Amino acid sequence: APPVDPFAKIRVDDCGKTKGCFRYGKPGCNAETCDYFLSYRRIGADVEFELSADTDGWVAVGFSSDKKMGGDDVMACVHDDNGRVRIQHFYNVGQWAKEIQRNPARDEEGVFENNRVTCRFKRPVYVPREETIVDLHLSWYYLFAWGPAIQGSITRHDIDSPPVSEHVVSIYKYEDIFMPSAAYQTFSSPFCLLLIVALTFYLLMGTP
């Protein structure tokens, strides 16, 4: 029998068409090169998520009513000491992520390769009323985070201010959104560009 691929690679050419995507990192990056990548798509009564990040620990997405950490439903893919990637459910209590035993994830799969944690799972669109599990048919801000793990337990995220979606996200609208990481934001703002032009003009003209 032919060998079976244990984890099908994430397709980015479907982004904005048959699934929604968020990319954070270098312009033009994909699921294997972005600092962080997330996709979502509806499949029947479920939403399938794909996550990937440049880390050997964990990668997560949080569903929030605002853009701040606290009171958020969080799904995380955690690389443990045995080399497996497990899907865990957390609830942010303030700045602390508390693991919740009731886990809505199913059809879980994950892999750790090339110093990247990548995973795929489904969770229901609708859930019985529960404080720690949100209904995905509603729109939420998405919190994106990743970081190291110690003996399979997540620790503080890699960057002080993890990226957040600019607006609430609807699972019924597929977008392909790119967010430049800090290393590529330096000269992207109009103010910085104006400053560069002014400095160049000053250097070319010289001092009086």
TrEMBL record:
Entries under PROSITE patterns matching the protein: DOMON (PS50836)
Keyword annotations of the record: Membrane, Transmembrane, Transmembrane helix
InterPro entries: DOMON_domain (IPR005018), FRRS1L (IPR042789)
Database matches in Pfam families: DOMON
Domain DOMON stretches: 34-149
GO biological process: regulation of glutamate receptor signaling pathway; regulation of postsynaptic membrane neurotransmitter receptor levels
Residue intervals passing through the bilayer: 187-205
The protein's name: DOMON domain-containing protein FRRS1L
Protein's organism: Nestor notabilis
